[in-house]
């Protein structure tokens, strides 16, 4: 996407540069009245500035992407999820999510497409939360609630433990950064996917067993 924006900026800058050259050529021919020539010079100055801006943006977009400074404390978040709950086997955390042989798992996406991995994690978390809400007669269909608001509703009804809410916020914060175009480093993505996978397994357990106890 950055390369596409860079190419677009170059194209716009080139057009503006040609337009500027054309305007200056007309002024140099001195076939217009002084008033018209003055207007053309002013327009040429404006197009020159616009062309330089477009070229500058093309350089910025074509440069190596800078990663957002996102911090994620995997140990702390994982501990908050483990409070009063058995942590799933990490080797099995991702198995339940692949229902078709051609579908890539979250772990497989890490490093190759971090944005997709985090977007998919967020979608799976929201799907599980909505499923739990439905199973517990919590009507959220008439309200456009996001992941955090659904979780808050379930916590308020003692369906989910309060300690999970903070962990969910930490996870979805990084996921939302990725969804909105921020590039997340591989190590942060892997960390979020690991803990997010743990939370997914716990949510599935709540959904299947009807509670956290």
Description:
With 213 residues, the protein is mainly alpha-helical. The protein is 67% helix and 0% strand. It is built from eight helices and no strands. The protein has helices spanning 2-29, 34-62, 74-82, 106-109, 114-135, 147-156, 163-179, 186-209. Helix 5 crosses helix 7 (163-179).
Which helices and strands appear, and what pairs or packs with what?
Elements (H helix, E strand, L loop, with lengths): L1 H28 L4 H29 L11 H9 L23 H4 L4 H22 L11 H10 L6 H17 L6 H24 L4
End-to-end separation in angstroms reads 46 Å
What is the CA-based Rg, rounded?
Answer: 26 Å
Strand content: under 5%
What is the count of helical runs? Answer: 8
Q: Report mean pLDDT, rounded to a whole number.
A: 78
Order of helices and strands: HHHHHHHH
As residue ranges, the low-confidence spans are 64-68, 89-99
The main sheet comes to: none
Question: In which range does the helix fraction lie?
Answer: 55-70%
Structural category: mainly alpha
Q: How many distinct beta strands? A: 0
Q: Quick gist of this model?
A:
This protein is 67% helix and 0% strand.
Features:
213 residues; mainly alpha; 8 helices; elongated
């Amino acid at each position: 996407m950055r390369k596409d924006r860079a190419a677009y900026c170059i194209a716009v800058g080139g057009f503006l540069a040609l337009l500027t050259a054309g305007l200056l050529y007309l002024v140099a021919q001195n076939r217009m009245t002084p008033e018209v020539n003055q207007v053309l010079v002013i327009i040429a100055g404006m197009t020159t500035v616009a062309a330089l801006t477009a070229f500058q943006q093309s350089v910025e977009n074509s440069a190596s992407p800078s990663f957002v400074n996102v911090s994620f404390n995997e140990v702390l978040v994982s501990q908050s999820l483990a409070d009063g709950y058995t942590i799933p086997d990490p080797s099995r955390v991702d198995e339940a999510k692949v229902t078709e042989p051609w579908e890539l798992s979250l772990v497989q996406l890490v490093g190759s497409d971090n944005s997709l991995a985090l977007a998919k994690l967020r979608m799976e978390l929201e799907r599980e939360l909505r499923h739990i809400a439905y199973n517990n007669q919590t009507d959220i269909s008439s309200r456009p609630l996001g992941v955090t608001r659904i979780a808050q509703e379930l916590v308020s009804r003692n369906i989910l433990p309060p300690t999970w809410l903070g962990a969910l916020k930490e996870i979805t914060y990084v996921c939302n950064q990725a969804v909105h175009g921020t590039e997340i480093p591989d190590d942060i993505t892997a960390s979020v996917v690991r803990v997010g996978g743990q939370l997914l397994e716990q949510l599935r357990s709540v959904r299947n067993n009807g509670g956290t106890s």
